[in-house]
Amino acid sequence: MLETTRFLLRKLASDRTAALGALIITLLVVVAIAAPVLSTHPGDVTEFHPPERLLPPSGDHFFGTDRMGADVYSRLLFGARITIAIAVIAIGASVLVGIPVGLVAGYYRNWVSDALMRISDIFLAVPQIVLAIAIAQTLGPSIENVILALSATYWPFWARLVYAETRSALNDTYVEASIALGASPWRVMILHVLPNISSSVIVRTTIGMGGTILTAAVLGFLGLGPPAPSPEWGRTIAESREFLPEAWWYATAPGLAIFLVVMGFNLLGDGLRDILDPRTRRSGDG
Amino acid sequence: MTADALLSLENLSKHFPVLNVWKRRSGWLKALDEVSLSVHKGEILGIVGESGCGKSTLGKTVMGIHRPTSGRIIFEGNDITHLKPHQSRGMRRDLQYTYQDPGASLDPRWKIGRSLDEPLVIHTRLNRGARRERVREILDAVGLPDGHLDLYPHEISGGQQRRVGLARILTLHPTMVVLDEPTSGLDVSVQATILNLFLDLQKRFDLTYVFISHDLGVVRMVCDRVAVMYLGKVVELGSSDEIFDRPRHPYTQSLLAAVPQIGKGRVTETFWLEGEPPDPGNLPSGCRFRTRCTQARDDCALAVPPLVEHSPGHADACLYSPARRGYSPA
Q1: Do B169 and B96 contact (CB within 8 A), yes or no?
Q2: Does residue A229 have a cis peptide bond before it, meaning omega lies within 30 degrees of 0?
Q3: B54-68 in b/e burial notation, b at 16+ Cβ within 10 A?
Q4: ipTM
C-alpha cells in the first residue's frame, strides 16, 4: 500500500497538469481547514458592518466587502468548507450506493440485475440538474437537502460505470479462473473485480467531484442551498448580481474559486486516468 | 461405465445460442454434442482436434464454468452436472483446471504468493502459517524459487507463469487436473521441461490428467489414451499407440498426415485435409466430416455415425471404418 502510494505521488509529480490539479485541490483543503487562521475577518460569516458595504479590494479587504459590509475574502475561505462538505458527502454516498449496485447487477444475470439497471436508467433519463432542483425545491433549502439531492441524482453514474466494468472484467480469464477454483461470488466481486476496476472508479469519482461542486453552486445560486447568511459560493454570486458591474470583486471572487476548484478536479482526474492505466503501471519502477 | 472411472461424461452437450442482429436466437452453436467419455484413475487422456472443435469447451464444461445443455458429469461417483463451482466446493477440490494462458489466469493486481494462497483460503481451514508452508512446498515441487512469491504475474516469464498456474491448483492436492493447451506459446526447450514436470508431478501426487492439446507430437509423448474431436463430437477414441499407429477415422488419418516428420514426404503430398471446418452453427447432416472427407459416400449424409468400439479399447465413428469392414491396415 505504501509502495503504491509512493509510486502514485512520483507519477503525479511528473505529470504537469495532474500536479497542477492536485495542487489546487490541496490548496482548497488547506484553506478549508485553516479558514479561521487564514481569514482576516473570521467573524464576518455572521457579523455585518453596514457602513463598510461594497468597499473595493484593499489591503484590509483583499477581495473587497459585500452588500452587508462583510469581508469577501474571509467568507470565501469559510465557503470552501461548505463546498468540500457537500462534495465529499454527496459523492461518498453516491459511491457507496453506486458501487454495490453496479457490482451486483454486473455479476449476476437475472431479473434483479435488470431491475437495478432499469432504475438507474430512469434516474439518468432526467437531466441531473433538473432532478436535483426538483428534489431540493421539494425538501426546502438546507445543506442536508442539497447533499441528499446530489446523492440521489449522482449514484446512477457509478452504478452504470461499475456495471459495465464488472461485465467486462467477468470476461477476463483471471476472474473465470477464480470462479473455476471455487471462489464465492462475494469473493470474486470484492477481491478480484473491485480492485481491478478501481482505477476507472477513482478517475470517475475525481471528475465527478468537480461536477458535483458545480451543481451544488447552481443550487446555491438558485436559493436552494444553505440559507443566508451562509457564505456558500453559489449563494454569494446570486447576492452579488444586483451590484454588478460596479462591485465587480463581489461576484468575481467566488466565481473564480468555483472555476479553479472544478478545473482542479478535472485536471487531476485526467492525470489519474493516465497514471492508473494498468498498462503503464509500474513501468520504470523495476 | 468402468468401475475405475474417475470422471465420466454421459451424452454431454453444450450448445451456445447464436444471436442475430436483434439479439434473437437464430440457431445453436453445438460446441459439444453428445460426448461420452470416461477418464480412468492415474491415466493421461489426450483430447486433440483443430481449433474450435470443442476441446476447451469440454474442459470448461467439466469444470462448471459453462453450464451443460444436457447430459451428465460424474466425478468420483457424484453427479456434479448442475453445480456451480462454489456450490460443489468439497468435490471440486479434487478436480482442477489449468488455463491455456496462465499469465491471464492470474489476477494482475495480486502477487504470485497471494494467488497461490487463494485456493487454500477457499477450500481449507488451514491457518496462515500452515498455508504458507503448503505454498512453499508446492513452489519447490514446480521448481520455482521462494522469491517469486513477491512478484506480480507480468514480471515472470511464460514458462514460469505455467509453473505458477500448476502450483496454484496443486496446493489443493487434487486427484484430477484438466490441462488446457499446457504447452502452447512455449519454446521447445521450455516445453520439454514443462512436460517432464507434468510427468514428475503426476507420479509424485498420483494425478490423473486430461490433456487438451492440438500438438499431436506432445500428445503422443505423454498420453495413455487419446480422444480425437471434430466439431463437438468425439470421432475416435483409443490408446495412444492405436490412434497414432492404426488410425481408423479419415479425420484422424488426415490430422496425423498433417504432422511434418523428418524423413517422410513433404506434408503437402500426403495431406488431403483441405479448407476450414464447416460453420459449427450450421452443421452438415449426417457425418460432420463428410464435407472434407475424401472417402465420403452418399449414405454418410443420412445419419450421424455413432462411436463404436470395433476392437477392445479402440472406438471410431465412421461408417466406413476399416475395422467395420473386417480388416485392419498394417
Answers
A1: yes
A2: yes
A3: bbbbbbbbbbbbbeb
A4: 0.78
Domain ranges of chain A: 31-276
β-pair partners for B233: B230
Are β-strands B44-48 and B70-75 bridged in parallel, bridged antiparallel, or unpaired?
unpaired
Orientation of helix B128-141 relative to helix B158-170, angle to 10°:
130
Give the residue from chain A lying closest to B59, CA to CA: A180
CATH numeric code, A31-276: 1.10.3720.10
Model pLDDT for residues A155-214, shown as the tens digit of each residue: 999 999 999 999 999 989 899 888 888 888 999 999 999 998 988 899 999 999 999 999
Residue A88, CA atoms < 13 Å, CB-side half-sphere: 10
Angle at B7 between CA B2 and CA B11, to 5 degrees: 85
Is A180 within 8 Å of B89 when comparing Cβ atoms? Answer: no
Q: Does A172 touch chain B (CB under 8 A)?
A: yes
d(CA B194, CA A25): 53
| Contact present, B263 and B278 (Cβ < 8 Å) | no
Identify the helix (H) or strand (E) that includes residue B226. Answer: strand B225-230
| Phi and psi torsions of B185, nearest 5° | 80, 5
Q: What H or E segment, with its residue span, contains residue B145?
A: none
Q: How many CB atoms lie within 10 A of CB B52?
A: 16
Q: Does A93 touch chain B (CB under 8 A)?
A: no
Q: Which grid coordinates are listed for B296?
A: 465420403
The domain segmentation of chain B, as residue ranges, is 5-94+174-316
pLDDT-above-90 percentage for chain B: 21
Residue A261 has what pLDDT? 95
Query: What residues contact B74, with CB distance under 8 A and at least 6 apart?
Result: B1, B5, B7, B8, B9, B10, B80, B81
Interchain pair B65, A176: CB under 8 A = yes
Homologous superfamily of B5-94+174-316: P-loop containing nucleotide triphosphate hydrolases (3.40.50.300)
Query: Among residues A114, A96, A97, which one has the least CA distance to residue A105?
Result: A114
Is A1's Cβ below 8 Å from some Cβ in B?
A: no
List CB contacts of B245: < 8 A, sequence separation 6 or more.
none
Q: How far is A29 from chain B (nearest CA, A)?
A: 31
> How far separated are the first and last CA of chain A, in Å rounded?
17
Who contacts A100 (Cβ-Cβ below 8 Å, separation ≥6)?
none
**C-alpha grid cell, residue B302:** 443420412
